[in-house]
Amino acid sequence: MAHATPADRPDHWSTGSHQDDGHAAPTLIGSVQRALRLLEAAALHEGGAPAKQLAREAGVALPTAYHLLRTLTHERYLRRVDGVYVLGPAVGRLDEAHAQQSRRHLIDDVLRHWHERLGAPVYFALYRDGEVDLVATADTPGNPAVAEWADFRETAHAHAIGQCLLSQLDEEGRRDHLSRHPVRPLTPYSVPDSQRLLRRLAAAERMQPVVEYQQYALGVACAAVPITVGSAAAVLAVSLPAAQAERLRVTTQLLHRDVGSIMRRLRFSISI
């Protein structure tokens, strides 16, 4: 049977080849490459460009370009308006995903910095859509994060992260949260009921760190420093063995002292 030459091969066949060192090059899909070139060409024309121009700029044969443009339009990566092609909404979703990923990397960098500096697990959390959202954690096997044995969202009353976030809400917001997630003691040290917690939150000085000892888990102490950007309530928190109470106070003071610089780095990540 005759072997197909490169010119005879269907568009979906591999275009892989062997490198000079004898190792196989990555398998590349020609049709995907050509579609990407067409997208890149379209991105250069804010007002759009016709198929012939895009094909020429992308170095794609016109019949192939028509097929690919039709597919890209169907998948909403392009839109055809008055005979020209412009970028579609699917490209915007990719851009948004990239921006979100960049924000997440920034948060991770901040947490890693403080984890290394403090030698303790560090947490970043938000109060979003009426719930506690633990966004990211930095820890190591030698300094592990607290095991989430009871859902953090449902037990905000029992850990420093949740108490610190609730402290940034008004009384109506706190009562609304507790109506959906009633107080239930998790350890002998936990706040016993909603009224006791509400009184404690009302008496606390606004935007000050919150420290709790063994309220969420026996043998663990946590501290959370409030960070507020616009209307978003956020916290940076640390946890340590309860026996290291003195060290917890020192780490909390360091976080609170540098909260301004932390806010400046995180302010563009709050919407993640």
From TrEMBL:
Basic and acidic residues biased stretches: 1-23
Family annotation (SMART domains): HTH_ICLR
InterPro entries according to UniProt: GAF-like_dom_sf, HTH_MetabolicPath_Reg, Tscrpt_reg_IclR_C, Tscrpt_reg_IclR_N, WH-like_DNA-bd_sf, WH_DNA-bd_sf
Region (Disordered), start-end ranges: 1-25
One Pfam family matching this protein: HTH_IclR
Keywords assigned by UniProt, alphabetized: DNA-binding, Transcription, Transcription regulation
PANTHER family: HELIX-TURN-HELIX TRANSCRIPTIONAL REGULATOR, ICLR FAMILY, HTH-TYPE TRANSCRIPTIONAL REPRESSOR ALLR
Name of the protein: Helix-turn-helix domain-containing protein
Superkingdom of source: Bacteria
HTH iclR-type domain boundaries: 29-89
Record domain IclR-ED: where: 90-272
Organism of this sequence: Streptomyces albidoflavus
